[in-house]
Specification:
77 residues; alpha+beta; 3-stranded antiparallel beta sheet; two-stranded antiparallel sheet; 21% helix
Length: 77
C-alpha cells in the first residue's frame, strides 16, 4: 500500500483499463459515435437528444429512435 500524505492507495483494488471500459458499457468499435439528434422541419431546429450509435450512422439511428422524418443527427465525437 502506497501512502501519499494522508491518502492511502491499495494496489489490490486498482481497476485496469479494460475493466473500466466494461463498466462504462463496453468498447463500441470503429465508426461508433455519440449522435446529437434534431428535428430540422423548422428554423431553428429542435434538439431532441443524444444517443450512442455503434454504426456511426446518426441520420438513420436518430430517425429510428425519435420517430422518422424530418429527424436527422450529427456525430459529436
Amino acid at each position: 500500500m502506497k501512502r501519499l500524505n494522508k491518502l492511502q492507495i491499495n494496489s489490490e483494488k486498482l481497476i485496469k483499463n479494460d475493466e473500466l471500459i466494461t463498466l462504462r458499457g463496453g468498447d463500441y468499435g470503429d465508426g461508433a459515435c455519440t449522435c446529437l439528434c434534431y428535428n430540422y422541419s423548422i428554423s431553428p431546429p429542435i434538439w431532441l437528444g443524444y444517443l450512442v450509435s455503434s454504426s456511426g450512422n446518426c441520420g438513420s439511428d436518430c430517425r429510428y429512435a425519435f420517430g422518422g422524418f424530418p429527424v436527422s443527427g450529427t456525430c459529436q465525437n
